[in-house]
Amino acid sequence: SSVSRLVKKLDFANYNDFKLNVSSYLKNLDYQNETPQAQDDLLTLLNKVSGMEMNVITQTKANLSMETLQRASDLLKAATYIDIVATDTNGAMADYLCHMLWGLGKIVHVYKEEDIQLYFSLHVPKDHLVMVISRFAFSQNIKRVVTNLAASQIPMIAFTIKEDSFLTRYATCVFYAYYEESSENLSKLVFYISLKFIFDLVCVILFSH
Description:
Number of helices: 9
Number of strands: 5
Order of helices and strands: HHHHEHEHEHEHEH
Strand content: 5-15%
Radius of gyration: 19 Å
Shape: globular
Distance between the termini: 26 Å
């Protein structure tokens, strides 16, 4: 294919070698250069934010698995009822996804309160698809919810940041949003830029079908 020929011309052994090298390079990007400074004028801030968003999206694309995209697409196409489990800022992001999915003909509900999440996880109808959003999946409540869902064999799409996440063990498929461990506020911004890109991509794929 043309992609294979291009990869060879760039002196990579194959496409996987190319992808690994690009991913390694992007992980070493210095996001400190994008950090807003007190002396920055409006034009500088505009350029920093746009540059950071482009970098984050590029890294997110490099980390995406086509197999995961296909699996998520199949689950979403088959589902009429979708439930989203998320708290705090993740809950606000879930509201955005909920709105987009309603527009695509899905019946969606977001569960943000921990006690309601737990009760819900014990009584999910078999024809529902559940999405779980958690950066670290450290919360004991999230762990109980996910364990309950898995025990009932409810299909799950998870959104997190690490392959060794608790969610990876139980979810049907997992998206790994990009996360840069720099300042806490910048790290959150990077994560949510990446997460929104994944949401938009999933919705566009669903719309195209």
